[in-house]
Amino acid sequence: MPRPDVLVLVLAGGKGSRLDLLTANRAKPAVPFAGSYRLIDFPLSNCLHSNIADVWVLQQYQPASLNDHLANGRPWDLDRTTGGLLVLPPYQGSGRGGFTQGTADGLWRNAQLIRDVEPRTVVIVSADAVYRLDYADVVRGHRESDAVMTMVTTRVDRGDASRYGVVQIEGDDEVDGARVSDYAYKPDEPKSDLVSNEVFVFEPDHVLSLLERLADEATDPDEEGLGDLGDALLPALVDEGVVRQHRHREYWRDVGTIEAYWASNMDFIAAQPPIDLDDEQWVIRTQGGHRSPAWFADSGTASGSLVGASARVAGTVTRSVLSPGVVVEEGAHVEDSVLLPGVVVRAGAHVRRSVVDDSVEIGRGAIVGGDDGIALLGDFVSVPPGERIEAGARYPAEDHD
Q: Angle 114-119-121 (CA atoms, 0-180°, nearest 5)?
């Protein structure tokens, strides 16, 4: 196998428990987005437009839902004889086999395979954020610096920073290539609004050797794992003084919670969305099927909305995202909501500020959601006619880990 110049590892194995019912039966990277896409389409499209052809997807939770979408990687030009797409599931048969327990643990378990192909540079990306980024540009900046690792950073609302790895920079924190002087993983009291956006470029020999040392120091890495990159690996590299930043100043949103997922979908119903998904220079590619155009009855209207292929609208849709195959019957109303593939909203039903998963049927005259919070309906459920599901509720109401 030829030595890759750049190898991208897409971390796609997390359970995504904060997405609640949306990830009960699918991997988080396979969650539909903006009517026609899946979350993993964004990093894979970034690889395509960055001209990076060696991409490994590390998966674990609900892999069938993701494999069905990835297929052979053709939409992202990854169906190649040499290089291309490689899917890495958990495995047995070596001392590092078994299920991973965090992103750093997954990197450690695949360290020998990475060493075997000898990439010059490795890029690690997550698959649960919506953004556009030229990874090749980050790699160029990384190689021009003396960094062992380059961390892509972005600013978020200060009150939301505790969800991320919070970064402090030596000197001017707007300068690309500036040294990262402090890193705190999901701190209770963030010191800044500057965070890592889960894109890392690194020198494999140094980082993989450090992982080996951390594993040797662990009490029992096979039982406890090495956790996430932010638990021990990134703080150790920052302490060595070998981490630099690359600032991402365009749209980036982590969609790891229901509220963030809903809000990001709402961002894309604007007349000028934060990312032009059809930009000829940077089209977001997806694994598409053959579907008929959307159909509107004389009584059907949709304003400020995204309407997917083969949707059938006879009711009223306002500021919403309708995925392929959604049906909104005459007299039904859908407002400020995200409906995933195959949802049927029967006549007279009213859906407001809700996320509705695959193939749900909302009965005649039912009322779902309201003004406070985001209601979430799990896949393949039926809401009885006339039922009332309160704002912010989960339906069905059983607990999901």
A: 110
Distances (CA, A) of 243 to 177, 188, 216, 235: 9, 23, 23, 10
Check residue 178 and report its DSSP letter: P
E strands, 28-179, are 32-33, 37-38, 54-59, 84-88, 121-126, 129-131, 149-155, 165-169
Nearest to 378 by CA among 401, 392, 394, 362: 394
Beta carbons within 10 angstroms of residue 211's beta carbon: 22
> How far does the chain reach from its first CA to its final CA, in angstroms?
41
Angstrom distance (rounded) from CA 93 to CA 129? 33
121-172: pLDDT as tens digits: 999 999 999 999 999 999 999 999 989 999 999 999 998 999 999 999 999 9
The whole-angstrom separation of Cα 18 and Cα 207 is 29
The superfamily in CATH containing domain 6-267 is: Spore Coat Polysaccharide Biosynthesis Protein SpsA; Chain A (3.90.550.10)
Cα distance between residue 112 and residue 96, in whole Å: 10
Report whether 377 contacts 395 (CB < 8 A). yes
Written as six digits, the tokens of 124 are 């690690």
Question: The domain 295-395 belongs to what CATH superfamily?
Answer: Hexapeptide repeat proteins (2.160.10.10)
pLDDT digit string (tens) for 239-274? 999 999 999 999 999 999 999 999 999 999 998 999
- d(Cα 200, Cα 167) in Å, to the nearest integer? 13
Both tokens of 27, joined, read 């991997």
Q: Which residues fall within 8 angstroms of residue 137, CB to CB, at 6 or more apart?
A: 50
Residues 6+ apart with CB under 8 A from 85: 55, 56, 57, 70, 72, 73, 76, 78, 79
